[in-house]
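To illustrate the input format used throughout this study, we show a single complete record. The first block contains the structure-token representation of the backbone; no residue identities are included at this stage. The design step must infer an amino acid for every position from geometry alone.
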């Protein structure tokens, strides 16, 4: 998934870029309105993350000009302007979603992936062949499908399942899964991965896919017997 992050705060740029890249997304960054609009036109991304307070052109001006130019990329506004009036103006200008600062990074990822799924053409199939239990990973959106429906998973559960579906029938080391599920989160206890495994295992129960613990090796995904 290609993202265009339009944000002039260097600290916020760094945090969001590192987090989103660690979660498998390609991120281009612009710090002002005119360069963002030019980049958007030249190389349309899958989703735009747009701050409102920008030099040159503010976020609403960028959005308005992009929509007038026929650019239909889904836009998630990220801003400290949290009033209802500001949200209405942004949505009426052409934004698809609105996330006030400060926000949770897991929620940001979930909203970005939801916007990307929403714009996927009906019937499009950019996923791998069905895996254990008929689960299928759509690599373009990151969503996991079962019986033509998207599994509703929390971001960490989804990251864990994506890693397991990438190697069905093979053990994925616990250390590797921890890195993928909790990227860059040094304050998280190592055992936290077991909580995510427990929750995902419960959600997979109806699918016929089984999440197996292999002591000393890690976890694997296989079809239930």
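Output of the design step:
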């Amino acid at each position: 998934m290609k993202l265009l992050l339009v944000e002039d705060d260097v600290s916020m740029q760094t945090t969001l870029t590192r987090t989103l890249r660690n979660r498998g997304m390609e991120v281009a960054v612009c710090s002002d309105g005119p360069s963002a609009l030019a980049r958007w036109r030249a190389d349309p991304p899958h989703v735009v993350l747009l701050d409102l307070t920008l030099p040159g052109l503010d976020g609403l001006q960028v959005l308005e000009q992009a929509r007038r130019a026929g650019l239909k990329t889904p836009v998630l506004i990220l801003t400290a302007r949290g009033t209802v009036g500001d949200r209405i103006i942004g949505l009426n200008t052409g934004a698809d979603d609105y996330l006030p600062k400060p926000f949770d990074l897991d929620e940001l990822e979930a909203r970005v992936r939801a916007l990307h799924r929403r714009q996927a053409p009906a019937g499009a199939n950019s996923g791998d062949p069905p895996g254990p239990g008929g689960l299928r990973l759509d690599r373009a959106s990151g969503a996991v499908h079962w019986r033509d429906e998207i599994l509703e998973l929390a971001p960490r559960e989804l990251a864990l399942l994506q890693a397991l579906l990438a190697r069905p029938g093979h053990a994925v080391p616990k250390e590797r899964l921890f890195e993928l599920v909790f990227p860059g989160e040094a304050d998280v206890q190592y055992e936290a991965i077991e909580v995510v495994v427990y929750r995902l295992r419960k959600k997979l129960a109806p699918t016929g896919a089984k999440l197996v613990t292999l002591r000393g090796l890690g976890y694997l995904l296989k079809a239930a017997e």
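Structural context for interpreting the output: Confidence is low (pLDDT under 50) at residues 121-126. The radius of gyration is 19 Å.
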